[in-house]
Amino acid sequence: MQSFFELRLKLKPGEKMVNKIGKQGKQELSITKKGREFHLYVDNELADTFKSEREARKAQKEMGKLIGIK
Question: What pTM does this model have?
Fold first, then answer.
C-alpha cells in the first residue's frame, strides 16, 4: 500500500521513495527505487538513473549544492 506522500508525488507503479531533500513549494530533489535502479528526480522530473543508492545520494547532494538546497 502506498503512503499519501507517494500518491501525492504520483510515483510510477513499482517505485518506492528512498530519500527527499528540499521544500515542497520550492525546488526538491528525490530518489526513488524501481527494481535494481535508483532514479533521481528534480522537481518531479527524471534527471538521472543510477545503479546504487550510494551513487544516487552522492549525485543528489552535489546537485543540491549547485541549486542551493542544504
Answer: 0.79
